[in-house]
Write a sequence for this structure.
């Protein structure tokens, strides 16, 4: 848990592309943004409150200035009159919130609704569905006054092989018959005529809820709003060690110690094993790569029949997520490297390029202007948790979105704020009343991931 502050060596301001939260012993500090399309086009970052420079006593500390941390600060102030202090190791939206594909969907975690039914039964699954729908409304209410280039319309879940259509058809029936949620099945010809000519597609399922956003513009909007409501946001202030004495949390940063009655953790895929014992081995950081092309010409758009700007994902286990951006560029991402050290290897970039070419042969050879990667927080049971893991400690966390946190992080921040304020218990759901599960084989997770990735590739591309 604890790192000796005297031993901490501040990371250089330059961005380190090999940072790996699973093996890092000390956090980064004040690093530059990675070379994303989002950072290049978001405009100047809004003002913040600068690094912590002295010891301070506050009411509530939030660790992490991404979507979840900033949303928690917004709802603490707006709904509970609590002005939080937000600590960020690097810069606002430096981690997951500034590197994702900007796909806001009616989902959270990695499980489908049919899997909810099998795991928890119909009653709980219906309540979880209602909560995630409510969360999507929470997200829409937050972004209505934020200039984040929204592209509404829905979400297309695209079958990458013909036999997958049976699974999509079964899922659509479950959505309609059990959850009263209208999901439409499209055959390949209809998909290509009405939406996009993805050459791999054997058809698709269309969900009515889905919005594409500019991830960093969204985070910057959250930052502005949180500070307008009275929260303070301190970049370059990583938590080096964390001790608790007489119920007061002492979070030691390079510039001083922050003492607080309650702490909310919103560090996502960048959660270090050393941050706190309650978090060790609770999330599994997984790398996701992304790239953005130059703007497509009108002829290229026609060649792909790219009529939609809705968010798209395919049905691979190691799925591709992609869409046409407002300036007619294509963004596409997928899983790739297992370790931070291996992340810069060109084969991971090539995986995305090959995927783009398979889906859109007309774009073969198109210039790629931006390429980056980042860590996603995956829970061991594939569902997030927004909880107080130990009722005897005023520590809370919202983690484990599994790549589906763009929209649900708003609701997670709202629910974590309720828990921190101690005024509302929130809905009776597994994601709110049980901690993130550990795993007996957690120390060997990288070996397991290596084996699983090979199995997933074989199953996705070759097996029935």
């Amino acid at each position: 848990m604890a790192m000796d502050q005297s031993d901490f060596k501040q990371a250089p301001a330059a961005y380190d592309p090999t940072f790996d939260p699973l093996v890092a012993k000390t956090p980064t500090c004040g690093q530059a943004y990675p070379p994303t399309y989002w950072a290049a086009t978001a405009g100047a970052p809004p003002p913040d409150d600068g690094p912590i420079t002295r010891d301070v006593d506050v009411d509530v500390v939030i660790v992490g200035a991404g979507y979840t941390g900033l949303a928690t600060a917004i709802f603490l102030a707006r709904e509970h009159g609590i002005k939080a202090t937000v600590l960020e190791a690097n810069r606002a939206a430096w981690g997951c919130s500034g590197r994702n594909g900007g796909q806001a969907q009616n989902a959270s975690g990695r499980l489908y609704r049919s899997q909810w039914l099998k795991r928890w039964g119909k009653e709980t699954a219906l309540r979880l569905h209602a909560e995630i729908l409510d969360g999507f409304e929470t997200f829409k209410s937050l972004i209505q006054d934020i200039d984040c280039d929204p592209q509404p319309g829905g979400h297309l879940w695209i079958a990458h092989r013909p036999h997958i259509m049976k699974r999509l058809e079964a899922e659509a029936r479950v959505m309609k018959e059990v959850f009263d949620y209208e999901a439409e099945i499209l055959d390949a010809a209809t998909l290509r005529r009405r939406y996009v000519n993805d050459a791999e597609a054997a058809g698709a399922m269309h969900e009515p809820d889905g919005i594409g956003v500019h991830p960093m513009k969204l985070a910057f909007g959250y930052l502005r709003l949180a500070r307008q409501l009275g929260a303070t946001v301190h970049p370059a202030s990583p938590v080096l060690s964390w001790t608790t004495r007489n119920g007061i949390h002492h979070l030691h940063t390079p510039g001083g110690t922050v003492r607080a009655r309650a702490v909310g953790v919103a560090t996502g895929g960048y959660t270090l094993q050393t941050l706190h014992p309650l978090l060790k081995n609770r999330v599994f950081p997984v790398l996701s790569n992304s790239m953005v092309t130059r703007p497509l010409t009108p002829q290229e758009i026609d060649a792909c029949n790219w009529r939609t700007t809705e968010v798209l994902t395919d049905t691979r286990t190691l799925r591709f997520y992609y869409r046409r951006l407002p300036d007619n560029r294509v963004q596409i991402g997928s899983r790739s490297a297992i370790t931070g050290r291996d992340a810069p290897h060109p084969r991971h970039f090539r995986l995305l390029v090959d995927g783009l070419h398979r889906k859109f042969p007309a774009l073969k050879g198109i210039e790629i202007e931006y390429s980056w990667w980042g860590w996603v927080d995956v829970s061991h049971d594939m569902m997030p948790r927004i909880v107080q893991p130990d009722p005897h400690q005023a520590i809370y966390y919202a983690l484990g979105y599994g790549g589906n946190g763009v929209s649900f992080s708003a609701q997670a921040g709202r629910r974590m704020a309720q828990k921190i304020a101690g005024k509302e218990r929130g809905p009776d759901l597994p994601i709110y009343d049980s901690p993130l599960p550990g795993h007996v084989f957690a120390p060997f997770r990288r070996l397991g991931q290596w084996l699983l990735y090979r199995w997933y590739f074989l199953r996705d591309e070759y097996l029935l």
